[in-house]
Request: fold
Amino acid sequence: MLGHSHALSGLAAGAATLPWAPVQGAVAQGAWIAAVGGFAMLPDLDHRNSTVSDMWGPVTDVPAGAIGALAGGHRWGTHDAVLAPLAFGALAVLASGAFWSTLLLMALAIGLALRALHFVIPGRAETTILGNLVLSWGGAWLLLDHMAAPSWLPWAVAAGVLTHIVGDAITTAGVPVPLLWLVRRKRLALSPIRTGATVERTALVPLFLVATVVLVYSNTGLHLAVDPLVDRLLSAG
Reply:
């Protein structure tokens, strides 16, 4: 799947899981959705010089090379439906123990989402290293300043990573057969859809976008604010 498809499917997954997410309040709900959406890009940090690894220059590109080496190359270890959520989630557990590492994790999620969704954001600030750093770290700081410590970040990481893997599993390139690929490299592809194909651009992307809007509306307090306004407009008409 293309980057923006992963991010949009992650946002939809974040909104869909809100009823079970360990978050309270509008700010934490928004942070959860943004985190799952951003972390749905995380598995692609397994090869250097990719759009995602270039996000913060050497700060993300160098670790991407190490991640790719440990994972056995692109679309292997970081795309294992069992190992990847556990490994990334475990790293998030370690990171969520202190404010600065939590801030880094939240900024990474926001930066990844901004980079993937740049095609719907006016301007190009989010695609530059400095612009993305300012927007992602500033956004993360504001979120953390207005909500309780996000002990739920490891769950958001795992949810985003798993969403990414499911998305790639429905493309012809597929994903590794969980765990068994360590013995014999074999992939699992669940459909004949090619990455970037017309069906992805014209059907899946709009579907993810609509699903995100509908699920945010129904699973947050947004409907409590909007419904009375709609009723008033209808009665006035």
